[in-house]
Specification:
The complex is a heterodimer of chains A (452) and B (72). With 452 residues, chain A is of the alpha+beta class. Chain A contains 13 helices and 17 strands. Chain B has a domain of 43 residues. Classes of the chains: A alpha+beta (452), B mainly alpha (72).
Chain lengths: 452, 72
């Protein structure tokens, strides 16, 4: 597909600790209620669409979840993903103020990570609109080896205290049990088969990817979505003919995650053995050939340049990527701290430090401390993030949804909104349905919006 | 909002500028390099102190209490 819709859904971890050490923390349910109170506008359920076209809601398991609006550029998507963090941060600060006013003691922390202490997991799901004509079997066969190996640059890193403080590249790898699965809460698969395109089903499939980690780094988000998009383009064009199928993908994803040197090899079905870096270099090589034939664009050029850069460094010495990749940045930070304070990696302080890297508060989170000191690579500006908090993308269906939500909120009109429709109740009684997320302007939608 | 094209140009520029900066770093007079090195070290020391503050909270209890229900 020439133009593709992308979306990211992020489930946040949340905890509200009391200032009195002996007290138990507030229940997650209560903390989430405080968080949502400001934006639910009298609705029964904590589930709202925002003026930037995004959806913010309480997910299964009581997580606050932010789903970006439909974006057709990876750069827009990175901005909207960060906008989700900032919106959540604002809600957190106002929830804490409200708690103070009501004399409820406690400090709320929200983490953009994927695991808690006992080992429950929550996800960051990527969504890609795809051409329906590609056979699912082909798609899975060509994508699985890519997803198994891309973690060497997309991983968010994780200290495993139970394993004498060993460090894994990916937070999600150890929760993957199947190659292909419909489940998201048990037996999670490398490829998830949920297919709700919120669009014309004849034309489009929605690829729902649950294998990835949540990322703090803008650079990683660019790579994660950008490289996946290029691989999808090659699959749609039937360009990949090399055999990458792995003998045991679930075993391989774990094996690669557990090796911070990125040198371990995994076995292919045809008997070849490749390291994750070598496999990714083969995909990169194919991508180069494909783009030479089909042409590129500035964002794709940027993705290709970053992809090549990280693979070259990973092959040489992963430690060089301590400005680019979450798992390397965090590991370096922990290493520096642990050795300067003489603490073992199995100490709870180190696990706490791991969590705090993912703290979304820009004045507390360790990722943001590094960003503030210009120690991490950036792709977008704070101004772009601020803009994305209040404005939908200009070129997708999210545009009319955002305008509709903004007006309805201003005029305090109850309305129905979903990914594919907007609805006005009595006395207007109107509904507008869109099955093409790539289209931003509809006369009928505009008429409906301005009738409010 | 800047158009997508502008943004992309901006990023490309930034990408191109990054290595150039490295280059100028290399030819800086030595005392400048030392100064910069000290600055980075000061920043790092400050960061480590800030981490101390964050970890002052009872880490053991915090970590123990950080329990989510599985999501998705």
């Amino acid at each position: 597909m020439k133009r593709r819709i992308y979306g990211l859904e992020t489930e946040y971890g949340i905890i509200c600790t009391s200032s009195q050490q002996a007290d138990k923390p507030m229940s997650i349910q209560s903390a989430v209620m405080y968080l949502f109170r400001e934006i639910i506008h009298g609705r029964m359920y904590p589930d709202v669409f925002l003026e930037n076209g995004a959806r913010f809601y309480q997910d299964i398991g009581c997580h606050p979840e932010y789903a970006t609006p439909e974006c057709d550029s990876v750069i827009d998507l990175i901005a909207h993903d960060k906008a989700g963090e900032r919106i959540t941060e604002r809600l957190l600060l106002s929830a804490e103020r409200r708690m103070q006013n009501e004399n409820v003691k406690g400090k709320m922390s929200i983490f953009k990570n994927n695991t808690d202490t006992p080992g429950n997991t929550y996800g960051c799901h990527e969504n890609y609109l795809m051409d329906r004509r590609v056979s699912f079997r082909q798609l899975a066969a060509k994508l699985i080896p890519f997803f198994v190996t891309r973690q060497i640059f997309t991983g968010a890193g994780k200290v495993k205290p139970s394993n004498r403080g060993r460090y894994a590249i990916s937070q999600r790898a150890e929760h993957i049990r199947e190659e292909i699965s419909i489940a998201t809460t048990t037996a999670r698969g490398i490829i998830n088969t949920r297919d709700e395109p919120h669009a014309d089903r004849e034309k489009y499939r929605r690829l729902h990817v649950i294998v990835g980690d949540s990322n703090m780094s803008e650079y990683v988000n660019l790579l994660k979505v950008g490289t996946t998009d290029i691989v999808l383009r090659m699959i749609e064009a039937n360009f990949i003919t090399r055999q990458f199928a792995l003998r045991n993908s679930v075993h391989a994803i774990q094996r690669i995650s557990d090796d911070v040197t990125c040198t371990r090899t995994v076995e292919l079905e045809n008997g070849r053995r490749l390291s994750a870096v070598e496999m990714q270099l083969e995909y990169l090589d194919l991508a180069r050939q494909y783009l030479e034939r089909e042409g590129s664009d500035p964002t794709t050029d940027l993705v290709m340049k970053c992809w090549e850069h990280v693979l070259t460094c990973l092959q040489d010495d992963p430690e060089q990527l301590d400005r680019e990749l979450d798992w390397v940045i965090k590991r370096r930070l922990i290493e520096t701290y642990a050795s300067s304070r003489n603490i073992g990696w199995d100490s709870p302080k180190i696990t706490m430090l791991d969590y705090q890297y993912h703290n979304i508060r820009t004045d507390v989170g360790l990722y943001y401390k590094l960003e503030h000191d210009n120690l991490v690579e950036r792709i977008i500006t704070d101004a772009q993030i601020e803009h994305a908090m209040h404005h939908p993308p200009e070129t997708t269906r999210a545009k009319f949804r955002g305008r509709f939500v903004k007006l309805a909120n201003e005029k305090k009109i109850m309305c129905g909104v979903n990914w594919s429709y907007i609805q006005l109740y009595e006395p207007y009684q109107k509904l507008f349905l869109s099955t093409n997320p790539l289209q931003a302007e509809y006369e009928e939608a505009s008429r409906m919006i301005y009738s409010i | 909002m800047a158009s997508e094209k502008q943004k992309e140009q901006q990023e490309q520029q930034e990408q191109q500028e990054a290595p150039a900066q490295d280059h100028t770093d290399n030819v800086e007079p030595k005392d400048e390099v030392t100064k910069k090195g000290e600055e980075i070290k000061d920043n790092l020391d400050q960061l480590l102190d800030e981490i101390d503050e964050i970890l002052e909270e009872d880490s053991e209890q915090f970590v123990e209490n950080y329990i989510q229900r599985g999501g998705e």
